[in-house]
Amino acid sequence: MTAITPSSLLAMRSAILQQNSALQKAAGSAGVGGASPIDGVKPTTDATSFAGAMKSALEQVNGLQANAETATTSYERGETTDIAQVMLAREHASVGFQATLQVRNKLLSAYKDIMSMPV
After folding, report:
1. What's this protein's family per the entry (predicted)?
2. In the chain, where are the structural domains located?
3. What angle do CA 71, 96, 2 make, to 5 degrees?
4. Residues 6+ apart with CB under 8 A from 119
5. Nearest to residue 114, comparing CAs of 10, 14, 12, 27?
6. Are 100 and 55 in contact (CB under 8 A)?
7. N or C: more exposed end of the chain, with fewer CB within 10 A?
């Protein structure tokens, strides 16, 4: 498992911004002409890379939480005595979960905004 890095978070942010700009362009051209812009829209690799990035990020967060649980259990059994490593693993899992929660909140907010747009 690879760790969540600032560069991977920036890549996910970039993918979100690209999707947002594509949606804004589609919504902006909807009022021009008689045809719906959605008729000609084809899936792009950006959509699949975004989905892949989200799946990868969720797997990383899951791995961090499993690692923290393993470290905690190991400390409780007396197998390790390094409380700093246990706390560090728990904080990594907590920060990863909080970041995932914030991304979820932003996606939900964007979905609500899109759904409230007049057609």
Report:
1. Belongs to the FliE family.
2. 6-24+47-115
3. 75
4. 30
5. 27
6. no
7. C
pLDDT reading at 51 higher than 90 = no
Would you state the structure tokens that stand for residue 106, as one six-digit string? 């932003």
Q: What is the pLDDT of residue 41?
A: 46
Q: Which two tokens stand for residue 50?
A: 């975004």
Tokens matching residue 54:
């989200």
42-30-21-105 Cα dihedral, nearest 10 degrees: -100
Amino acid at position 96, single letter: G
- Taking a C-beta distance cutoff of 8 angstroms, is the pair 86, 71 a contact? yes
80 φ/ψ angles, rounded to the nearest 5 degrees? -125, 155
